[in-house]
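Worked example 2:
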Amino acid sequence: MYDPLRHWGFVGGAKKTVGIIGIGGLGTMGIKIAKALGHNVVAISTTAAKEAMAREKGATHFVASKDPATIQACAGMCDIIMNTVSASHDLNLYMPLLAKQGVLVQMGAAMAPHTINQLPLMFNRLTIAGSLIGGVPSTEEVLQLCADHKIWPDF
């Protein structure tokens, strides 16, 4: 969860808004890391059932992706969205959450192709990218960040 933030300029810079799709083990670590880096965090899940837990971990906003009102409430807010979901799902649902020139980073490996509406990409200069775990320097940095902020996985 750290390396995409590092790669896209979210470490050591201005406070931004980070969206995280999938509020499971990986997503909750992402919330904690983004919050420790000083960013606002939008937790995104299919239902409102995970809102309290996401806020407890540090999310400042919550989107239930099946509730259009919550999507509208956070429209254009996210500078980056990290997608941890590995199941097939509609990425177009999340595009309105991205700010102009925002990036959606695919981290969950869905095996089925995703269909994307190109107009929002073009009009808002949006980017869809992918990321794997970083190398040794990135891993050392995130371990130090976690030690400094007392961040650990939930059991």
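The chain has one domain: 2-49+56-108+127-149. Residues 2-49+56-108+127-149 form a domain with the Rossmann fold fold (CATH 3.40.50.720).
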